[in-house]
Design brief:
Helix content: 40-55%
Strand content: 5-15%
Radius of gyration: 24 Å
Strand order of the largest sheet: 7-6-10-9-8-11
Distance between the termini: 46 Å
Number of strands: 13
Shape: globular
CATH architecture of the largest domain: Orthogonal Bundle
Number of domains: 5
Largest sheet: 6 strands, mixed
Oligomer: single chain
Number of helices: 18
Structural class: alpha+beta
Length: 478
């Protein structure tokens, strides 16, 4: 992390000021303790100078801190979320430029997060007022509304952490090397490990087709029940997830505590998300998986075979390859249902996801359901002119019975075109001449005039309706 910090300038003035004020020291005394001048400290606290490696080390040694605590947040992700929030009609007329938003994020990140939470609460209030889901209302009517719904709070936590958790990743890799060596962890080897290390047996359970059961640990009988009929990749993942819950509870609790969630529901969801993270890292150990990904040029299908995993598991793992000094190609990963709801989203790229409302209908992930299981590829350009190699595929998860309802999802993975030469899915494309699809975050904040699929006009533009002319979209905007 320190090496990464030296390569990228760290403007973390508010964090340093908060640290100093927490010690009760004035600038002069604090600066003397660290070995710098008071004027230099003042410049650091006001983001006029970056935090250098020597000063970072001095702070860590003087105040017994982890250097990782100085890591700056991903400014572009927060700026993107602020831009979307400010496009809400309630802020009509406010059009701050990108530099203004970057200044807010770098100078007062706490305010940026508070503003996003407040806006989310405002949106949620409106949605609840218009809700017609009586079951949901009756279940929650006695419960005070939190600023964020638990899933939203966890989603944002993972998003701003770039979905990388170093200690969990390293622990999973160590176990994989010690227990499985260079052989992929399969259901039988995972079952053997659970029995030898925890005296837990694996049994399958046939269930009613309408049941949603997947995994259940009977602690008294020391049996881990797995749903009958699920595929090997899913069975492996469920067992690896159980290993995480048994062996990594301390680290998981430490991460949960550091997040300071507002509800126990969010904490519970995060525990499961982190167990899932560990499971993916155990099945696809970081260094070995990164090496294989680079050698196969991120061929997800080949990697599925090599590691005994699913396309979704591999795509998700792509988005977590962010170890300092050993990073993979930065990928985003997203999962949609048929209604266009984002079920999962993770990104180590600059790709901007909509926090509210629908996503761009021109994005190829929406076409995946029509592709008959084929992997489809698109070159897409966001409004900031950054182009992405977008890979999409539909998957179906069966319930192990003809009578069990199947679940259908569209998966999307992608990276910036600058990395496309490292990715096998770009091989059939002539990147300099290939068609480019202009897409946006959502219609509400997209300024593309000529889009034939626009659903609603942009919030911050005046409409122009010509009664004597009709185009694909019945209005223009300034």
């Amino acid at each position: 992390m320190l090496h990464n910090g030296m390569r990228q300038k760290l403007f973390v003035g508010p964090k340093i000021r908060q640290l100093r004020e927490g010690t009760g020291l004035n600038q002069l005394t604090f600066a003397e303790r660290v070995g710098i001048s008071a004027s230099y400290l003042n410049q650091i606290e006001n983001n006029q100078r970056p935090l250098t490696a020597p000063v970072m080390l001095a702070l860590a040694q003087t105040f017994q801190l982890d250097v990782n605590s100085f890591a700056s947040e991903d400014t572009e992700k927060i700026v993107s979320d602020l831009r979307e929030a400010i496009a809400d009609p309630v802020f009509a007329g406010l059009v701050p430029n990108g530099q203004d938003l970057k200044t807010i994020v770098s100078s007062a990140p706490w305010f940026a997060h508070a503003f996003l939470n407040l806006h989310t609460a405002f949106r949620r209030t409106g949605e609840r007022l218009h809700a017609i889901d009586e079951v949901y209302a009756s279940d929650r009517e006695e419960r005070p509304m939190s600023v964020l719904l638990p899933y939203e709070e966890v989603r944002d936590f993972l998003h701003y952490r770039s979905n990388y958790f170093e200690r969990l990743d390293e622990a999973a890799e160590d176990l994989a090397e010690q227990t499985f060596g260079l052989v992929a962890a399969r259901p039988d080897t995972l079952a053997s490990y659970l029995f030898k290390s925890h005296a837990i047996r694996i049994e399958t359970r046939g269930v009613d087709p309408s049941s949603r059961f997947m995994r259940e640990l009977d602690r008294k009988a020391k049996v881990l029940w797995i749903r009958e009929g699920i595929d090997a990749a899913s069975a492996s993942f469920l067992m690896a997830q159980q290993i995480a819950l048994l062996e990594q509870s301390d680290e998981i609790e430490a991460i949960v505590a550091s997040a300071a969630f507002r509800s126990q529901d969010a904490e519970a969801i995060t525990r499961l998300a982190l167990a899932n993270y560990y499971a993916g890292a155990l099945l696809m150990p970081y260094d070995r998986f990164l090496d294989a990904a680079q050698k196969t040029r991120y061929d997800a299908e080949r990697l599925c075979y090599m590691f005994g995993t699913s396309f979704e598991q591999v795509g998700h793992r792509f988005s977590t390859l962010q170890k300092p000094n050993a990073k993979g190609v930065p990928f985003y990963f997203v999962r949609f249902d048929r209604a266009g709801n984002i079920i999962k989203r993770h990104s180590s790229t600059r790709f901007q996801f909509a926090r509210f409302g629908g996503t761009c209908p021109l994005w190829n992930v929406h076409e995946a359901f029509e592709a008959g299981g084929r992997t489809i590829v698109q070159i897409a350009e966001m409004p900031d002119s950054v182009r992405y190699l977008c890979i999409a595929r539909a998957v179906t998860k069966t319930g192990g019975s003809h009578l069990a309802p199947a679940r259908h999802y569209a998966l999307g993975i992608g990276c910036e075109v600058a990395h496309a030469s490292q990715v096998v899915y770009a091989d059939h494309l002539e990147l300099k001449t290939a068609p480019v699809t202009p897409i946006g975050v959502s219609c509400r904040i997209c300024e593309r005039h000529e889009c034939p699929q626009r659903a609603v006009p942009p919030i911050d533009r005046a409409l122009m309706v010509d009664p004597d002319r009709r185009d694909f979209v019945p209005y223009k905007f300034a």
